[in-house]
Amino acid sequence: MPKVVDHEERRRRLGAAACAVLSRTGAAGTTVRAVAGEAGMPLATAQHYLPTRELMVRAAMAHLVERVVDRARAIRTGPTALDTLRLAVLELVPLDAERIFEARIWLVLTAESLIDERIAAVLRDNAVELRGNLERLVTQARADGSIAVDADVPAVASGLATLLDGLTVRLLSTALTPAEARAEIDNHFARLAAVSGCEG
User: Fold this and answer.
1) Cα(first)–Cα(last) distance of the chain, in Å?
2) Residue 5 binned pLDDT confidence (cut-offs 50, 70, 90)
3) Each residue's pLDDT tens digit, 72-127
4) Is Transmembrane helix found in the keyword set (predicted)?
5) Per CATH, the architecture of 75-200 is what?
6) pLDDT band, residue 58 (cuts 50/70/90)
7) 49: Cβ–Cβ under 8 A, 6 or more apart, which residues?
8) Which CATH superfamily is domain 1-62 in?
9) In a designed cystine with 100, which of 48, 94, 108, 167 is the match (CB 3.0 to 4.6 A)?
10) Domain ranges of the chain
């Protein structure tokens, strides 16, 4: 009987391996051979799934997104949609070892995107997806009145994305402590709530 190959499981293994290699060596050291070795997979097998560096980067990003989505599904619902949005934002900030690992990869790829248009395209796709998710949550907050009903949804989402990027860089460079990052997030959300008259 022929062996049944789980292609999705192999892709996940390679995505996780690409993340580990990226975290250690940066994009320059992320070769198919290195990723195959990390995954404990024959080089020819890895090449079948990830024949180019662009595909390796996409596999790594897909793996990171899957990790974040899995955590997002476990987020408890807050008393208001704005509270739920705050919890979601906290999940995206590198406040523990797991999220620091993810953020390091994002920062490595962000630096590499300055000279590699293919990596830049991957990051743009992910940024668009993040903005879409933030806009969806902001729309829910506007609908339940936890922020102003006339709030500019794209502008609020954009501000949150900028906040996330800034906090992530400052946390990874140790210019900010986790407690300080939480305080900045709380202050940002207090201002959003105050606009709607819901503060306190």
Assistant:
1) 66
2) low
3) 777 778 889 999 999 989 989 999 998 999 999 888 888 888 988 888 888 898 88
4) no
5) Orthogonal Bundle (1.10)
6) confident
7) 7, 10, 11, 14, 55, 59
8) Homeodomain-like (1.10.10.60)
9) 94
10) 1-62, 75-200
Question: Which of 18, 7, 6 has its CA nearest to residue 122?
Answer: 18
Please say whether the beta carbons of 14 and 61 come within 8 A: no
Tokens at residue 144, please? 């339940």
Q: What is the pLDDT of residue 197?
A: 55
Q: Tell me the two tokens of residue 98.
A: 């797991």
- Token pair for 114: 């300055």
Which regions of the chain does DSSP assign to beta strands (E)?
none
Residue 180: how many other CB atoms lie within 10 Å: 13
Query: Tell me, what DSSP letter sits at residue 20?
Result: H
- DSSP-derived 3-state class of residue 100: helix
Q: Which two tokens stand for residue 143?
A: 């609908």
Question: Which DSSP symbol is given to 121?
Answer: H
The answer to whether 184 and 167 are in contact (CB under 8 A) is yes
Residues making up the chain, counted from first to last: 200
- Nearest of 41, 43, 33, 54 to residue 10 by alpha carbon: 41
